[in-house]
Design goal:
83 residues
């Protein structure tokens, strides 16, 4: 988890820095950061599924990912959009 977070921060900072140097609009900065964070979250999600599939069956892996990854992230995103 922390490895992906550190990688995400480095990539987003580099992208925002470059786009700021080229005077890109704020909407472009925001979109680029969201896209990068989404891609890296997806990679983290896939990697977690791969690790869990070694220890439990596919259904158990799916339930774990739903309970501890998908639903909390969905609630966080929904609250951020609503507020």
């Amino acid at each position: 988890c922390y490895t992906y977070f550190i990688f995400t921060v480095v990539i987003v900072l580099a992208t925002v820095g470059l786009l700021t140097l080229f005077h890109a609009p704020d909407a472009t900065l925001k979109s680029a950061a969201y896209i990068e964070m989404g891609i890296i979250y997806l990679l983290s999600f896939i990697r977690t599924g791969q690790i869990l599939s070694d220890y439990c069956n596919g259904f158990g892996t799916f339930l774990y990912l739903c309970a501890l990854e998908i639903i909390p992230m969905g609630a966080l995103i929904a609250s951020a959009i609503a507020l």
